[in-house]
TrEMBL record:
Species, as recorded: Azospirillum griseum
Protein name: TniQ domain-containing protein
Taxonomic lineage from the root: Bacteria, Pseudomonadati, Pseudomonadota, Alphaproteobacteria, Rhodospirillales
Pfam assignment, any one: TniQ
Highest taxon of source: Bacteria
Residues annotated as domain TniQ: 23-172
Amino acid sequence: MLELSQACWICARLNARCSRVLPLAPRPMEDELLSSWLSRVACRYDLDGGALRGLLTTPGDDAETMTTLHGLDYQPAHEEIAVLAAAARLPVERLSTLALTTAHPTWPRHWYAWDWGVLVPSNGTEPYANALAPGWCDLCLSEDQAVGRHAYLRRHWAYAAVGFCHRHRLPLRHLCPFCQTAGSLRFVPSDGGTRLCCGNCDLTFPRQKGHRVKRLEARLGLV
């Protein structure tokens, strides 16, 4: 991971519009949420995803006004996708596939899990949520760590009508098992990759190996 002083120097250059290309940007996973990918990139520079989004896509001092990832996953603007793709040295088409409206163009908005504590006006009368509220599967995260893969948020974890992991057939978590808060997730660097972390208590998931995790590692031949 870059030193904090190096990260600050990079961010200063971005904010001054001297450079729009990141020296380090992990590649997106095929089934990853766009906000998950940008958050994984941001954690390499000691930033959260919203802060990096503002620095890359908002010129000058206005970058400070965009501090969230709200609205990024569902139907991001083509111009924003183009800027993010250029910064990460990715084809625009590759990054566009992470948008929910691209992956499922016929799905209505309410088929996804939204954080209804974050509402914005739609047609002047009915509010709608603009921030996804995905769950996560402890076994998937353990598997990521066991095989040396970056932890990331899968797209199907944001399907409102599902609520379980497609791979392990277990209910998804929506609350931190340590502080019992919801809706506050971030990534932290770990052993050259990333791990999911509670934004409230700063503990990473999963923290301890329970019997289900040990059975998973046995099936993978890692123990």
